[in-house]
Amino acid sequence: MSESRTLAISGMTCAACAARIEKGLNKMQGVKATVNLAMETAHVEYAPSTVTAAEIIKKIEQLGYRAELRSELKSDKDRRRQEIRRQQWILLFSVLLTLPLLWAMVGHFSFTSWIWVPDRFMDPWFQFALATPIQFLIGGRFYIGAFKALRNGGANMDVLVALGTSTAYFYSLYVTIGDKPSELYYETSAVLITLILLGKLFEHLAKGRSSEAIQSLMGLQAKTALVIRGGEEIRMPVENVVVGDMFLVKPGEKVPVDGIVVEGEAAVDESMLTGESLPVGKRTGDPVFGATLNKDGVLRVRATKVGKETALAQIIKVVEQAQGSKAPIQRVADVISGIFVPIVVCIAAVTFLAWYFLEPGDIAGALENAIAVLVIACPCALGLATPTSIMAGSGRAAELGILFKGGEHLENTYSVSTIVLDKTGTVTKGKPELTDIRVEGAFHETQLLSWVGAAEKNSEHPLAEAIVAGIRKKGISIPRAESFQAIPGYGIKAIVEGKGMLIGTRKLMEQHGVNVEHAYEEMNGLESEGKTAMLIAVDGKYAGLVAVADTVKETSRSAVARMKQLGLEVVMITGDNERTAKAIASQVGIDQVLAGVLPEGKASEVKKLQAAGKKVAMVGDGINDAPALATADIGMAIGTGTDVAMESADVTLMRGDLNSIPDAISMSRNTMVNIRQNLFWALAYNVIGIPIAAFGYLEPWLAGTAMALSSVSVVLNALRLQDAEKTVKDGDRGMNGRMQFVLVILLVGMSFFAGYGFGKQENAPKADQAATEEKKQDSHGHGNDKDGKASMATDAVWSTENARAGERTTVRIHIQDEKKEPVQNFEINHEKLLHLIVVSKDLSYFDHIHPEYKGSGEFEIATTFPAGGDYKLIADYVPAGGGKTTRTEWIKVEGASANNVPLKPDREHSKVVDGVQVTLENDHPQTGGEVELAFKLADANTQEPITDLEPYLGAVGHVVILSEDTEEYLHVHPVDEKAKGPEARFVTSFPGAGIYKIWAQFQRNGQLITVPFVVRVE
């Protein structure tokens, strides 16, 4: 005899911890354990004769973790709240100590060198004083965790963090003590620890949300009960109610425990258990369940189940087991997690050695890259990928009245292709009524029905109960049968008042030699109406027939339609004859029917479907369908709140509504898609992140940020399952969930690319000349695309509305491919999808605007032309998969035209615009090679150099150049896009000699400054 317990475990930091505990427990004799990192629990089955719970707890403690029996703890909600509060205080302390180190760090970056840093913050010993408590007091948990893991022959995330931060800290200490001329990395270790703590706090908050389903179920329980003892009404805690107690439930009160109504009538809201929104009428003899709500009336109830035996307790137990179990797909993550940390340590060592030999003498740089590798590697996301989705998915399913008994069943439901529905109680209401009576002339109706009632009274079949109820409703007394025999699948045989009674099918009559051929026509007519007709014989002679009909559930037809929308094959199975079965099936839209199947034959039919390669889900009432439920790939039991413990089913559908079936399938599919997203992201994160860090493109502190966000992103993605709709909508759950996941992915991706940029800037002095030249070449600009170098040929179709001077003119640009089809996707080029340059024919007017993308290749903008005449429109864009492309168009604007201004080279190349003096230094450019255009900016009044330029379209400035005839066009970007002044340099090549007009554009204090120059190119 085995027992099962759930243990709460503290101290786990990543998947390697969970794997180590699980491996250690499973090595114990008589123990089978499953450890869930997301729930921080271990579900243990053990043989009390071999091992005790105390010994299991001791084993966990020997492995370096803490464990307690779940039942001996405070509620999970209180425990989590205390842990979150503790983590918040530790994080606050860490942030306060880290901020001065971060402030000192900004002085090392060229793009933040203008920020003032107190001299004290740059003092190595001051940084040492701040970093030390972070490293050993706040970060001590990582050393302890690493020591315990290594002592037990394993390695976890703590090993990586301790190794990475210690390397940065002790190297900095070596530099400080030896007064070495090298960079300090105190801020690296401090920021890493702080970011990891922040990530763990977010992760803890998110995991708390994922367990809300259990918490909400527990919160449904009534706190007190009004019990009648000794003739007195006593209000007492619900824990004190015992089986057999009588209690009252007044309007607006919750039913405290499960029981049977003894007196009274009321409408009871059972939606919190079954998901059924309509209240259920209750009267004497009806069952009621704990946590349901009495809407009206007073009920006197006798307690039948209390404590852990109530329906609510059983539901909570099933959900906890499902959330704590492992899905088969998790094995992949378990295998990888077991070998992950040692591999990462090896990669970090190789990274250090490679950089040390590639950059001789740069130990600091080699250490920095090795630290980034250690810190960015994160087995946590991998370990959380599956259990968080299982938690959220099974919890949400429980809220919808769907109980998956384990993660493996949640996964297996995903692959179901065929649904087999039992008819009675599943497709139909399971409450048949007596509808038709036919009596042969030789018999009296009342006498015959009394004999039929006596025979059927001994049968437990629902049809027999309906016949007896119908006879009693007519006021006919029913005698006692002298003998009774049920013949499964055929009918019954009995002796009543000395008469031999046969009631059942044609085959039953044929077996006993009763001639009933003349009744076939009438019987067929009844069956074609969906009724079940049973023939009656008395002493071997045909005496008549009775017909019973079961009403189809109102939602069965819509539920079957939903199943078909999900691509499922729907089959109905029944013991009824084929004519009756097809009549019922046609009412709900089922095309495939298996009729005349005996109870013991249902499992065989399921096997036949499986042999045909189908994944079968059998849906029944969980009693006479038990063999078929057990045989199917997934057994689904239709329950009503009392059937949650049915052992034969893998999934319990607590609502009688068949819509629970597509809900369950949809929930399983959503969960499996979610798990695969998590696993893909967790694996991709490490596969992409580790090489980026190893090649030196990621700062350690950004690696820590990415690592923290990776775990949080997995948990947040799993939480999307909590918003799953009860009804399937066009095959998906809508954009909100997808957008949340995409935003998280983008957030982590941004940290990678930010790290790449920062690392590249910091390593700029080390970069080779070729890389510099490549970047320089890219900044030269782009022109008319005459050579067709773009990898994707496109064209622009232009249109204008109301092209009149002084009025709003609408300009539309349709971008098409070679087949005249709209180009759908464009790449962002300097913060915009399309840049539109507008110039007058004499180049006296200039505007740089950005039309709005309307979709399907169409851009639109409204602008105002100052005067009539000819204007040239120049569009710059980058089609997805193509290169920078320029397309132009001349338009005629109606209205009074301005006088043409002849284009003459400027004598002075220094101009003042909006209080800013801009000087073009190279005022005599030449053709035949690259030309540098350098612009110096100063305050026009004080002549102080301007160093606070703001980015305009992602760069310090933009330069547009047009030849006098407007045929030659250049759009040039700066060499150093992140410069802030006082100089902005642009490199380009003029296509030929002549007069050119140059417009230089900068931004300061939120104001755009456009400065025109006219030059002669020799």
UniProtKB/TrEMBL annotation:
It comes from the Bacteria. Coiled coil: none annotated. Residues 765-791 are annotated as: Disordered. It is a multi-pass membrane protein. One of its GO terms (biological process) is copper ion homeostasis. InterPro entries: ATPase_P-typ_cyto_dom_N, ATPase_P-typ_P_site, ATPase_P-typ_TM_dom_sf, ATPase_P-typ_transduc_dom_A_sf, ATPase_P-type_domA, HAD-like_sf, HAD_sf, Heavy-metal-associated_CS. One of its GO terms (molecular function) is ATP hydrolysis activity. Residues 3-68 form the HMA domain. PROSITE patterns: ATPASE_E1_E2, HMA_1, HMA_2. Residues 772-789 have a biased composition (Basic and acidic residues). Its EC number is 7.2.2.8. The chain crosses the membrane at residues 89-116, 128-147, 159-178, 184-202, 335-358, 370-392, 678-695, 701-719, 740-759. It is an enzyme of class 7 (translocase). One of its GO terms (cellular component) is plasma membrane. It catalyses: Cu(+)(in) + ATP + H2O = Cu(+)(out) + ADP + phosphate + H(+). It is found in: Cell membrane. NCBIfam families: ATPase-IB1_Cu, ATPase-IB_hvy, ATPase_P-type. Belongs to the cation transport ATPase (P-type) (TC 3.A.3) family. Type IB subfamily. Involved in copper export. This is Copper-exporting P-type ATPase. It comes from Paenibacillus validus.
